[in-house]
Amino acid sequence: MLPEGLDWKRRWYRRDDGLDLTPGGYCPDATDYQFEFSKNRTCRLESLSDRQALVLLGEAGIGKSTALEEEYQRQRSVHPATDSHAVKIDLAAVSNEGELLRRLERLREFDSWKNGNSDLLLYLDSLDECLVTYHNVQHSLFEVFDLGPRERLKLRLVSRAPAWPKHFEDALRRGLGCEPEVYVLAPLQRSDVGQAANAKGLDPVAFLQDIDLSDAGLLASHPVTLDFLLSRYESAGAICTSRSELFRLGCLALAGEANSGRRHNPQQPSLPDSHRLALAARVAAVSILCNRRTIHLGHLAEMSEADLAVDDLVGSTEPAEYENLRVTKDGLIETLCCGLFQLVSPDRIGWRHRSFQEFLAAELLASHDLEPRQILGLMTSRSDGRITPQLGGIAVWLATRSKELFDEISRNDPAMLMTANARDLSDDQKAALTRRYLEAVQERNEIDRDHYHYFHNLEHPALARQLGPTIANQEIEEHTRRIAIRIAAACKSTELTRCLLDLVFDVNDGIDLRSYAAWALWHFGPQDATHGLRALLFNPMDNDDDDELKGNILRCVWPTHLTASELFDVVSPTKNKNLLGSYKMFLSRELLLGLKVDDLPIALAWVTRADLASEM
């Protein structure tokens, strides 16, 4: 279980606006200075307290009821004995028509609204778990609306997103005479995850680092799978050794029903979690291979080209544990209500994240024992054997499970495998992928800056011996040597320090490449070996027209190998005032960070020098 008393500041977003998660898979953190400039607009529930009708949706197990309870208790504390009263009813406990009204009429707060002058803030939780039909709930609400002044009634109605009935919005619009606003509970922020780890007695920094190494942010941002990750980390001291296994267990947890009341409700039979996972895998494979973004639950006449109808998924069987599971419409509808999916619009269900879709599609293809050539036939559409870009995610998952597929894809399309997690690749595979990726860069000059984020996954024991000859060889194209340097920096391959130092000193190489080598040395962190670089600062650096080499050398030697007096002797006005490069970054950031109190007189004297005052 997650620790009690977590002070999570949960965020909500408008259903019609959607939400872009961070690259790590979290809700954008409201404490991040970049949040104000983000196109994502999330808010706290308390900021919506003036709205008359709110529909509050969310995935199974994401924490809707907890967030609602916190807001309910906050309202009670704000208005303990005033002319505004808050009432909360769990619709999962309403078992027959008329019970909602009977429960309300027994409350003095309801009577104060109905017969007095008080406002009523009505919280109704778990609409999707109510034991009576939606029509009966709607009828009961209309009875409530007719009993008192609607202008003094505020309604908060909570439901799982996929189970939310579209017609309810029209009913609320008619019943309350206002437009209901629909909000969705966002996944957890990164800071929320760190707080949960700390409450468990774990090191939050180490836990979040392990999450990053496992590419498990999507799982950590959901309370159900965060609980699973915390328990795993607590017992084993690490999250996983295989990202594939982690995603399988995480998807299984999301496929499980979060609300225990539904499991024990005989009127709402529940599939085993493994069966839901098998059905979700079919939805994933069909939707992604047919290029269908959403599953449509409304009238067929309203479908678009991006929709997949539930009826199109029905039929035949799928392997589930030790049996073949018949694919039925009821089973698919139940599966679409689990935590793997989210509401995109009133009639459309989409995947919570494409990564889950790609993983489960790969799981389905693997479960049907297809030959590698058959899988490649599905994945490739070009004569050069390269993977169709839209299917790259599936290809990566499958390649980490099959040596034959890995070899074939890495031979023809190594860039496609750059997103593979390091824990899913052997050292031999990392070496092969590094070699083939550099060959592709050399032959086709294919450089995608997005790949830079994944270079750290290529780290293996023989990496320095593999990259060194490429970095040092002046006959190899400069862009290829630059990528080799970039990989070395990402993997902190300090064994290449001597090789990179030689390159920095070699005046026969291009100034840009020498600067890049100095940047990599700075990226390694302070080293005794970089002391010799200071000699370059006291001699003219020909062709360093933008001060990029100078800036990166200063980063390497200050303040470890350079005194303040020496530093301010070599600092000069910027040559290219329009470039925000390494030298300008050094002057505005690293220089200041390296200063000590004793250095201030020297620094102040430098600032007041007439020849620099207008430049710095």
Q: Portion of residues in helices?
A: 40-55%
Spatial strand arrangement across the major sheet: 2-1-7-3-6-5-4
The pLDDT mean sits at 88
Head-to-tail CA distance between termini: 55 Å
Short recap of the structure:
Helix content is 46%, strand content 10%. The chain contains 28 helices and 13 strands.
List keywords for this structure.
single chain; 616 residues; alpha/beta; seven-stranded mixed beta sheet; four-stranded mixed beta sheet; 28 helices; globular
Question: What report would you give on this structure?
Answer:
By secondary structure, this protein is α/β, with parallel strands linked by helices. Helices cover 46% and strands 10% of the residues. The strands form three sheets. It has a seven-stranded mixed beta sheet with strand order 2-1-7-3-6-5-4, with helices on both faces. Helix 10 (243-255) packs across helix 12 and helix 22 packs parallel to helix 24. The radius of gyration is 30 Å and the shape is globular. The relative contact order is 0.06.
Helix and strand arrangement:
Layout: E1 12-14, E2 42-43, E3 53-58, H1 64-78, E4 84-90, H2 99-105, H3 108-115, E5 119-125, H4 134-147, E6 153-160, H5 167-176, E7 181-185, H6 190-199, H7 204-213, H8 217-220, H9 223-236, H10 243-255, H11 260-263, H12 273-289, E8 294-296, E9 307-309, E10 317-320, E11 323-326, H13 329-335, E12 341-345, E13 348-351, H14 354-367, H15 372-379, H16 392-399, H17 403-412, H18 427-444, H19 463-472, H20 478-490, H21 497-505, H22 511-524, H23 534-537, H24 548-557, H25 564-570, H26 582-594, H27 600-607, H28 610-613
Parallel strand pairs: 3-6, 3-7, 4-5, 5-6, 8-9
Antiparallel strand pairs: 1-2, 1-7, 8-13, 10-11, 12-13
Helix pairs in contact: 4-5, 6-7, 9-10, 10-12, 12-13, 12-14, 14-16, 16-17, 18-20, 19-20, 20-22, 21-22, 22-24, 24-26
